[in-house]
């Protein structure tokens, strides 16, 4: 089986979980590759923006976006610290068969009310809120029926608010793939186009955080 290509410059999302604690998510970039290892810059926490000291042997779940824009995952461990032009970490390089492709339909979609601004070509922008979001797109409330057309390409601006108090602003192109009228409310489904891998990982992290919050409420 031929696996997706991880190249120098590929952005990785790392999930690290210490026993008895919640999983933490980090992002980093591949700075070099050899036969046995992926060399990465020091991972930065997605919410705090801080780096962390990891013990040799620490285990990570890694995700990245391939050239085909699908999301891939694999498990790895920290093998060593390496001195380069910048300090780097050596992760054990996965075998191609150990890299799992996560289908688009497997993106977690959560109900979420997020402030969003929509910019149309040669038209006035308008603001609204989402009704749900996933790593592949979002649904939003359309203030007026005539504000969007099916298959129209738009610019989407949104702000993700994490429980840590951090805010992340995301801008991407999107395409209107579905328009619906339900209970007197017009909604539109938007597919992200060309969403940057780091931004996509932030959206996915946001969705998982919201999913965890909903599960906690259900259990309480």
Radius of gyration: 19 Å
Proportion in helices: 10-25%
Number of domains: 2
Number of strands: 15
Name given to the CATH homologous superfamily of the largest domain: predicted glycosyltransferase like domains
The order of strands across the largest sheet is 1-2-3-7-6-5
| Overall geometric form | elongated
State the order of secondary-structure elements, H for helix, E for strand: EEEEEEEEEEEEEEEH
Summed up, what is this model?
GO terms for molecular function: cyclic-di-GMP binding. This protein has 220 residues and is mainly β.
How would you sum up this structure, described in words?
The longest helix is centred in the last third of the chain and has 23 residues, at 197-219. The protein starts with 10 loop residues before the first strand and ends with a helix. The chain is elongated and about 60 Å long. The mean pLDDT is 87. It has 1 helix and 15 strands, in the order E-E-E-E-E-E-E-E-E-E-E-E-E-E-E-H. The chain has a 6-stranded antiparallel beta barrel. A 6-stranded antiparallel beta barrel has the order 10-11-12-15-14-13. With 220 residues, the chain is mainly β. It folds into 2 domains: 11-102, Electron Transport, Fmn-binding Protein, Chain A (Pnp Oxidase, Chain A, Roll); 110-219, Thrombin, subunit H (Beta Barrel), CATH 2.40.10. It has one helix at 197-219; strands at 11-16, 24-33, 37-41, 44-45, 59-65, 71-83, 87-92, 100-102, 110-111, 115-119, 126-134, 137-142, 153-161, 167-182, 185-193. Keywords: Bacterial flagellum, c-di-GMP, Nucleotide-binding. It holds the Pfam family PilZNR. It comes from Oceanobacillus indicireducens.
